[in-house]
TrEMBL record:
<dbReference type="InterPro" id="IPR003439">
    <property type="entry name" value="ABC_transporter-like_ATP-bd"/>
</dbReference>
<protein>
    <submittedName>
        <fullName>ABC transporter ATP-binding protein</fullName>
    </submittedName>
</protein>
<dbReference type="GO" id="GO:0140359">
    <property type="term" value="F:ABC-type transporter activity"/>
</dbReference>
<dbReference type="Pfam" id="PF00005">
    <property type="entry name" value="ABC_tran"/>
</dbReference>
<keyword id="KW-0813">Transport</keyword>
<dbReference type="GO" id="GO:0005524">
    <property type="term" value="F:ATP binding"/>
</dbReference>
<dbReference type="InterPro" id="IPR003593">
    <property type="entry name" value="AAA+_ATPase"/>
</dbReference>
<feature type="domain" description="ABC transporter">
    <location>
        <begin position="35"/>
        <end position="255"/>
    </location>
</feature>
<dbReference type="InterPro" id="IPR017871">
    <property type="entry name" value="ABC_transporter-like_CS"/>
</dbReference>
<dbReference type="InterPro" id="IPR027417">
    <property type="entry name" value="P-loop_NTPase"/>
</dbReference>
<dbReference type="GO" id="GO:0016020">
    <property type="term" value="C:membrane"/>
</dbReference>
<keyword id="KW-0547">Nucleotide-binding</keyword>
<dbReference type="GO" id="GO:0016887">
    <property type="term" value="F:ATP hydrolysis activity"/>
</dbReference>
<dbReference type="InterPro" id="IPR050683">
    <property type="entry name" value="Bact_Polysacc_Export_ATP-bd"/>
</dbReference>
<keyword id="KW-0067">ATP-binding</keyword>
<comment type="similarity">
    <text>Belongs to the ABC transporter superfamily.</text>
</comment>
<dbReference type="InterPro" id="IPR015860">
    <property type="entry name" value="ABC_transpr_TagH-like"/>
</dbReference>
């Protein structure tokens, strides 16, 4: 269901999307590479492959200017959906069309732990395709927005998880993204950073990009998103305005 008007330009179209993970199910052990290796050494039978159907027949259209909260219980397929939109997971069936370049900002986004925050800002900006001149121009804003202060000259390995998440968000949001995918990055920040990052998401949305935000904080979704998708067991239960979907999910969660 589309919240935008008929003039709006679609940026992401998911059409009957199914994502299935294939995992090695060991006999008694966990399905890790180590257990598979032990099995080979012991010349045991081939392991069974278990399938996890993480996203089931999901269809929606996102438009320019949409900020879409993705909500649902643990394991309901939210991160998987974001990774599929980013093109990191091949669909088992169905398709995702994206008009523009999606950028996934996850709490696990690659940063070089041994390098200083300062070097990571430069690397991150280069990775997003910014020129040296653009980086120089944006550098102070990024550092100020991150609120890292003098820690910017220390290796990332000395940062708390919240500080690292703030720096990642500051780097990612320095650039205008066609489609920005944010996975729980705000949850690790403190209250003050949360307020600033919510404002930033609103700016990105106003600049006519499309933002997807996976969050367990329904308040953040209500404050920053115009739309929400509720996933349950990989199925899209509801697609509508943030208020409507959060209300339905809250009612459901309260049993
Ligand atoms: N790399 C993987 N290999 C196999 N199964 C996976 C993998 N990643 C996720 N899954 C499974 O896919 C399903 C959806 O997981 P996903 O991480 O997308 O859920 P989520 O809604 O983001 O959860 P949470 O709120 O806990 O972050 C779960 O059953 C999970 O066990």
């Amino acid at each position: 269901m589309a919240v935008a008007d008929s003039e709006a330009e679609p940026t992401v179209v998911a059409d009957h999307l199914d994502i299935i993970y294939k995992v090695i199910a060991g006999q008694g052990g966990k399905g890790t590479a180590a257990t598979a290796f032990r099995r080979i050494l012991k010349r045991q039978d081939r392991p069974t492959i278990r399938e996890v159907h993480a996203v089931k027949d999901v269809s929606f259209i996102a438009y320019k200017g949409d900020a879409i909260g993705v909500i649902g219980r643990n394991g309901s397929g939210k991160s998987t959906l974001l990774r599929a939109i980013a093109g990191l997971l091949p669909p088992a069936s169905g398709v995702v069309y994206t008009g523009g370049q999606p950028s996934l900002l996850g709490v696990n986004a690659a940063m070089m732990n041994d390098l200083t925050g300062d070097r990571n800002v430069v690397l991150g900006c280069l990775a997003m395709g910014m020129s040296a001149a653009e980086i120089q121009q944006r550098y102070d804003d990024i550092v100020e927005f991150s609120g890292i202060g003098e820690f910017i000259d220390l290796p990332m390995s000395t940062y708390s998880s919240g500080m690292a998440a703030r720096l990642k968000f500051a780097i990612a949001s320095a650039k205008m993204h066609d489609i920005l995918l944010v996975d729980e990055a705000l949850a690790t920040g403190d209250a003050e950073f949360r307020v600033r990052s919510e404002r930033k998401i609103r700016d990105l949305r106003d600049q006519a990009g499309t933002v997807f935000l996976v969050s367990h904080s329904l308040d953040v979704v209500l404050d920053t998103c115009n739309r929400a998708l509720w996933l349950d067991g990989g199925v899209l239960r509801l697609d509508g305005t943030a208020e409507e979907v959060v209300a339905a999910y809250t009612k459901f969660a309260r049993g």
